[in-house]
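Here is this case:
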Amino acid sequence: MIIERSAPIFNRKGIAATAMSDIMEATRLSKGSLYVHFDNKDTLAESVVDYSMQLLHKKVSAILNRHDNAKDKLFAFLDMYKDPLNPPVTGGCPMMNFGVEADDLNEPIRLKVAKNIDLTQQLLTDIIKQGINRRAFKPDWNYKEFATMMFAMIEGGVMISRNTKKHDKMTIILRNLKRMIEEQTL
């Protein structure tokens, strides 16, 4: 319960800006009760990052599992991000939010984010490779590079959209990624 109620706060405000009083208010627990479960805010933050990443991956898996072929899975993945102002995880993309904050300041969190970036890129790579093996995509597609580019463009689109409070640039990014996927379809 503590992690679940704390996750949106950490994701929105960041680890450094989240105070234990924010957590106390959200959970309706005293500081002493919180410290029974977590030694300090940093250990709570690490648990929150794990929880947020698992939540995002569960949502991604649920959406991908609705589709049988690689192209539909890739399009469904892209469609998950079509409105970054209403993200799949409350507060925005946890990889983006925690990653930007932690890259120079918090090595344990940075490592957790890096692991999840790698997992997401591997997921995209596996989907495309499966499509190539099933002859849905061209066999000479440099799918590993495309998976990296796709992930980076989505994260960049999330950042642009969240900061401008508009999703027009994300629409452009998704349209072009879908076009690039279509160009590889047999």
In short: Residues 107-133 form the longest helix (27 residues).
